[in-house]
C-alpha cells in the first residue's frame, strides 16, 4: 500500500506544497475555536454519535471510544492515492509520539460500505498501523457517521469504468482530532506534516491528559 507510483509521489509533493499554507491557517482557526479565551470563533460542528462495524465484525459506537483521544479519517480501501498517503502520515505521527500514542486511537471510517466489508478493512488497516481500527457498516450507518463529521462523499464513474462496481469515491480528506470526551479538538488537512501532527497532538495530551 505504501509503494505508490512515481507520478503519484510527485503529484502528492505538489499537493502537499499547495496545501501547506491552507493547513496552517485552518489549524490556527481550529485552535482559536477550541481555545481557552472567550467564546468560540465559530460553532464546532465536527463529530457526534455513530454506530458502525469494526474490521473484526463487532458493533462499535462513539461511546466505546471515550477516554482516549481519537484521530478520525474517512476514506475507502480502493482509494488510489489520497487515503494511503493520509494514513501513512497518520501512522508516522503516531510513531513520532512514541509511548504517548497509547492515548490516541486512530480510526479509519469507510465512505464506501458497499465494497469495504469488515474483511476488506481488516487486510487494509494492518498495512498502516497496528492500532488502526477500520470501521464500516450499512449505507445508513456510514451516512450517519459522514454527516456527523460533515464529510463530503460522492460516487463517481470514470470514463474507463468497466461496470457498476468499478467506481471511485470523491471524499473529503481531513483528519479530525477528538478529545477523550468525544468533543472536537482540531483538524489536520490533507498534506499536514506528520511531525507537525505529532507535536499538535502532544500539546493536547499535555493540556488534557487522559485519566
Ligand atoms: Ni481516499
Which quaternary structure do these chains form?
single chain
Percent range for β-strand residues = 15-25%
CATH topology: Glutaredoxin
Q: Indicate the structural class.
A: alpha+beta
The averaged pLDDT comes out at: 86
Globular, elongated, flat, extended or rod-shaped: what is the shape? globular
Number of helices: 5
Give the full name of the CATH homologous superfamily: Glutaredoxin
Describe the structure.
The structure is a single chain. Helix 2 packs across helix 5 (194-207). The model is unreliable at 1-35 (pLDDT under 50). The protein has helices spanning 6-34, 82-97, 118-125, 139-148, 194-207, and strands at 51-54, 59-61, 69-75, 104-110, 133-136, 153-156, 168-171, 175-178, 184-188. It has one domain (6-207): Glutaredoxin. The chain has 5 helices and 9 strands; from the N terminus they run H-E-E-E-H-E-H-E-H-E-E-E-E-H. It has a 7-stranded mixed beta sheet with strand order 2-1-5-4-3-8-9. The structure holds nickel (II) ion.
Write the layout of secondary structure elements.
Elements lengths: L5 H29 L16 E4 L4 E3 L7 E7 L6 H16 L6 E7 L7 H8 L7 E4 L2 H10 L4 E4 L11 E4 L3 E4 L5 E5 L5 H14 L4
Helix pairs in contact: 2-5
Amino acid at each position: 500500500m505504501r509503494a505508490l507510483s512515481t507520478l503519484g509521489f510527485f503529484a502528492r509533493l505538489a499537493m502537499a506544497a499547495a496545501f501547506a499554507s491552507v493547513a496552517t491557517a485552518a489549524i490556527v482557526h481550529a485552535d482559536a475555536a477550541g481555545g481557552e479565551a472567550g467564546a468560540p470563533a465559530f460553532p464546532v460542528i465536527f463529530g457526534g454519535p455513530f454506530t458502525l462495524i469494526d474490521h473484526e465484525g463487532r458493533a462499535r459506537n462513539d461511546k466505546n471510544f471515550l477516554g482516549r483521544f481519537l484521530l478520525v479519517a474517512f476514506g475507502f480501501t480502493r482509494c488510489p492515492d489520497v487515503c494511503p498517503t493520509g494514513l501513512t502520515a497518520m501512522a508516522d505521527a503516531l510513531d513520532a509520539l512514541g509511548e504517548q500514542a497509547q492515548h490516541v486511537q486512530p480510526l479509519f471510517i469507510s465512505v464506501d460500505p458497499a465494497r469495504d466489508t469488515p474483511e476488506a478493512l481488516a487486510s487494509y488497516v494492518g498495512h498502516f498501523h497496528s492500532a488502526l481500527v477500520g470501521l464500516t457498516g450499512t449505507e445508513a450507518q456510514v451516512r450517519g457517521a459522514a454527516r456527523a463529521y460533515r464529510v463530503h462523499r460522492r460516487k463517481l464513474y470514470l470514463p474507463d469504468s468497466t461496470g457498476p462496481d468499478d467506481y471511485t469515491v470523491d471524499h473529503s480528506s481531513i483528519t479530525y482530532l477528538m478529545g477523550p470526551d468525544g468533543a472536537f479538538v482540531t483538524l489536520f488537512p490533507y498534506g499536514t506534516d506528520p511531525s507537525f501532527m505529532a507535536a499538535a497532538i502532544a500539546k493536547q495530551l499535555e493540556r488534557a491528559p487522559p485519566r
